[in-house]
Amino acid sequence: MRQRLQQRLKYKFQNLKKAPKLGLFVFLSNNSYMKKNHSKLLTISLVLIFPTFVFSAQCAERSSRFIGQELTLEFVEKLNKLSQSGDLEATILLADTNYDVYQNYPKAFSLFKVAAKRGDLYATTKLGWMYLDGKGVNRSERNAAICFTQAAGGKSFDGLRYLAHMYINGLGVEKDFVVTHALYQIAIPLGSSRNYVEIGNRNVIVRNMTSNQLSLAKELSKKLLKSNNFFITIEKYLNEHGKLGFNGKPLMAYELDLS
Question: Which pLDDT does position 198 carry in this prediction?
Fold first, then answer.
């Protein structure tokens, strides 16, 4: 197992083209799954500081008491024990390790599911991308959209922008620029320097929206900011305008089974 871990990290090291000369800084990233769809975003989920592997943090909201820990088999086993005892942070970190290092997607999915059941928005968003990519679970745009809606309802930046991604492309939901624009309006102020993709997408759809649609989007964003349930708020807007939520059925007709 140790050799497998070393080979996996060596593979990741060899395939990173812009590694700093002093080593790769491994980040606990909350958007490492964006690599596939946004090739210009260099997001690294693990960093190498020769000769050991350590955990660092990409941003304040993902800070962890495990920062600085060497990534060894003993540490992974420690995470396993902590996760089994109900430690949420250890569960998420173990899920990330299975996803990014071992690429054991079924195991990662089961761990993210445990964290999502406890209300963790990062884990819920990660489940959404695994459903969308079909990693560790059967692909389901519908379930992905449900996960992103749940995360967006908690005002998660990633949940908001990925739900907007679903609406702008009609993935699991009916394509709708008003909902997309409203979601971007909420997400962009939360994104800091990470939001240039969202700003670009919003500006593109604005050119294809009428003044009435822009007014509706502005009103919807205000309602969503005050909303405790994005499913109900979005569904109400869609119903008022003769639209449905997930592939021709109302949003509330679906509940994601996390049992």
Answer: 83
Half-sphere exposure of 179 (CA within 13 A, CB side): 30
What's the rounded Cα separation, in Å, for the pair 20 and 22? Answer: 5
Q: Are residues 96 and 151 in the same domain?
A: no
pLDDT in tens, 30-85: 334 334 444 333 333 333 333 334 444 333 334 457 777 777 889 999 999 999 99
d(CA 190, CA 238): 25
Cα–chain-centroid distance for residue 180?
17
CB 53 within 8 A of CB 74: no
Kindly state whether residues 202 and 100 are assigned to the same domain.
no
Tell me the residue type at 187: A
Residue 133 lies inside a defined structural domain of this protein = no
Q: Kindly state the tokens that stand for 254.
A: 């679906």
**pTM score, whole prediction:** 0.73
Q: Are residues 87 and 159 in the same domain?
A: no
Co-location of 11 and 59 in the same domain: yes
Closest listed residue to residue 60, CA positions, set 214, 229, 193 = 193
Range of 226's domain?
140-253
- Inter-helix orientation angle 141-153/157-169, to 10°: 140
- CB neighbours (10 Å) of residue 222? 13
Backbone CA torsion sign across 11, 115, 27, 158 = positive
Task: Work out how many domains the chain is built from and give that number.
Answer: 2
pLDDT < 70: residue spans in the chain: 1-64, 192-195, 244-259
- CA–CA gap between residue 242 and residue 108 (Å, rounded): 39
